[in-house]
Write a structure and sequence with these properties.
CATH superfamily of the largest domain: Vaccinia Virus protein VP39
Strand order of the largest sheet: 5-4-3-9-10-14-11
CATH class of the largest domain: Alpha Beta
CATH architecture of the largest domain: 3-Layer(aba) Sandwich
Radius of gyration: 27 Å
Shape: globular
Order of helices and strands: HHEEHEHEHEEEHEHEHHEHEEEEEEH
Length: 410
């Protein structure tokens, strides 16, 4: 499930329903404070977060029917709600990545956390993003492409998979529809499901999944349809190391993770899990404790918990687990401790500015290299064309010169 209070811009939500905290008493995590909000106006037709990620209101327009519209305001740090811990996992995983930050987003919606990770990676010199986004709802999957392009991300450079995620591969009955107002689509577990698709339909669905071209719905009503599904092991297989898996699979989280736990142990550094029942939460605790993972966050769903950032209500539960081989220290109450010292306050601003400048210079350098290669190719093509023209005109030119020389002698 997507938290409306975080997905929908604050100016479009009734603020009386969102818990507020006294900024003088609650301080942002150092990794949040390290990133100054983007000091630019948001382009018309978009809403922007503090990293500058642009989002089309059409992606959640169905959630705005009763919300009062307030004047736009500059991007600010994320509010202290259940998704604050997702921000922390993104930023901390990026901070600890090396040359490539590999992220898998399961139940990706329109790919908002991959886009946010991309914005964070851009602020880290000499690091690039490799994203895997898996989403089963057809409209949401198509929106991933739009959201990536809106934020300067080439969809073809990343692994976008139209499928559900389950413990075993094949096909599952899946809820779809109401895309702009519902982000809780899930595998249907009741006995009344549509007939299992015949072999021809299964082939077409599998082909659409491979090509990333889900069928276009004729209406936006909620309904159950058969969707191809993949396993977490299949998704991880191409990547020797995964820095972060962000998992929101609406009740299938334990089965998905348990079915691939051996590969998860070997390759994954951090997990952010949205949980959907107390039973699943307990199963996950047993699973990862048995495999010696470190618990960083554990907040039950449908409850209000005391956190380092005040009292927060959790719709979905939140669990963060860190692979014991990862260079991170977890402190009590879910508060993270970085393994290197924070820069002195007076140097922090300089460090941030230098990082942004260095990133801009690197982008300019790459653009100049591409332009230089294009000019070299055009020069080579021009030289080749000139040689061909000179060769074709050589005989007439020699004939004219000979004719004029004879006229001169006469």
């Amino acid at each position: 499930m997507v938290d409306v209070g975080s997905t929908v811009p604050e100016r479009a939500v009734d603020q009386s329903s969102i818990p507020h905290h006294d900024a003088a008493q609650v301080q942002h995590h150092p990794l949040i404070a390290l990133h100054d909000p983007v000091a630019v106006s948001c382009p018309s037709g978009f809403d922007c977060d503090f990293l500058g990620v642009r989002t089309r209101p059409a992606f959640y327009s169905g959630m705005l029917a009763e919300a009062p519209q307030l004047p736009p305001r500059p991007p600010t740090y994320p509010p202290f709600n259940e998704e604050y811990f997702e921000w922390l996992d993104i930023l901390e995983a990026v901070d600890q990545a090396s040359e490539t930050f590999v992220m898998i987003e399961l139940g990706a919606g329109y790919g908002r956390w991959c886009a946010r990770a991309a914005a964070a990676v851009r602020r880290k010199p000499d690091c690039r993003l490799q994203c895997v986004a898996v989403e089963a709802e057809p409209a949401h999957f198509r929106w991933i492409h739009d959201h990536f392009r809106d934020n300067g991300i080439d969809p073809s450079a990343h692994d976008l998979i139209w499928a559900a995620v389950a413990a075993t591969p094949g096909f599952v009955p899946f809820w779809v529809g109401a895309a702009d107002g519902w982000y809780g689509q899930a595998i249907e577990v009741a006995s009344e499901t549509p007939p299992f698709p015949d072999i021809s339909t299964r082939r077409r669905l599998k082909a659409r999944s491979v090509l990333g071209r889900p069928p276009v719905a004729t209406n936006n009503d909620r309904s159950v349809t058969w969707i191809p599904c993949v396993t977490l092991a299949d998704v991880i297989a191409p990547y020797p190391r995964v820095d972060l898996i962000d998992l929101d699979v609406q009740g299938a989280e334990y089965e998905v993770l348990a079915s691939a736990i051996d590969l998860v142990n070997k390759r994954v550094r951090r997990l952010h899990i949205g949980t959907h029942s107390s039973r699943i939460e307990e199963q996950l605790r047993h699973l990862f404790t048995a495999h010696n993972w470190q618990m960083v966050n554990d907040y039950p769903g449908q409850s209000t918990s005391q956190t380092p950032y005040g009292s927060i209500h959790f719709g979905d539960g939140v669990q963060t687990w860190v692979n014991p081989t990862a260079p991170i220290v977890a402190a009590a109450a879910g508060r993270r401790v970085r393994t290197r010292k924070k820069p002195e306050a007076e140097n922090g601003e300089k460090v941030r500015n230098l990082r942004v400048q260095l990133n801009d210079l690197q982008q300019q350098n790459r653009a100049l290299k591409r332009r230089n290669a294009e000019l070299r190719e055009r020069t080579r093509a021009g030289d080749e064309q000139l040689r061909k023209r000179q060769g074709s005109s050589a005989w007439p030119l020699r004939f004219v010169e000979k004719w004029f020389s004879k006229r001169g002698r006469s």
